Amino acid sequence: MDGIIDKLREWFCKRREEAAATNSRLTKWADKVVRNGDLDGHVNMLEKTCTCREFQLEQLPCVHAVAVCRHRDFSIYDYCSHYYSSDAWVLAYSETIYPVGPQEGWDVSGDVCAREVHPPLEKRSSGRPKNNRIPSRGEEKVPRKCSRCGGRGHNRLKCMTPMSLHE
């Protein structure tokens, strides 16, 4: 637990310093995303929407909204969500993470000490467990290739080709 807390403290300190040193209105990531625009989408600047849906999903101006902002001389920063602002970034890492200390020094009430905590009851699903994982949507299944016989659809462990004894 102490190692995790030390690592979190290290990350927060690093990010706090990065956030304090920024001189942009947006975070570094959001600044990179807001880029040059083109005019092949339909944008509603009042509702912050675009036909490409990136404006709604990311809550950052898409390339079409950026083009409108440049054409109309609007500030791009006014159409970015507050969550991408450098102020929100500084605020996210402003708190200090304190060490927990040794367990002997903890002040735990008797009510908490008396409770017995058990792992959740988990029912095992019926049937034989799957040997292969279920691929994600859009992921293509790569056929296996045996390193012993060179055949496809299996690996060396499941190879049914007879092995020669004298190689």
Summary tags:
2 strands; two-stranded antiparallel sheet; mainly alpha; 167 residues; 6 helices; 2% strand
What is the typical, i.e. mean, pLDDT?
83
Biggest sheet features? 2 strands, antiparallel
Helical proportion, percent range: 25-40%
Principal-axes shape call: flat
Number of continuous helical runs: 6
End-to-end Cα distance, whole Å, is: 54 Å
Low-confidence stretches: none
Order of strands, widest sheet: 1-2
Approximately what portion of the residues adopt beta-strand conformation? under 5%
Radius of gyration: 28 Å
Kindly name the structural category. Answer: mainly alpha
Number of strand elements: 2
Order of helices and strands: HHEEHHHH
Give a description of the structure:
There is one protein chain. With 167 residues, the chain is mostly helical. Among the domains are: 1-25 and 85-101, no CATH class; 29-84, no CATH class. Helix content is 32%, strand content 2%. The chain has 6 helices and 2 strands. The protein has helices at residues 2-21, 28-33, 54-58, 63-72, 86-92, 110-114, and strands at 43-44, 49-50. It has a two-stranded antiparallel ribbon. The longest helix is centred in the N-terminal third of the chain and has 20 residues, at 2-21. It is flat, with a radius of gyration of 28 Å.
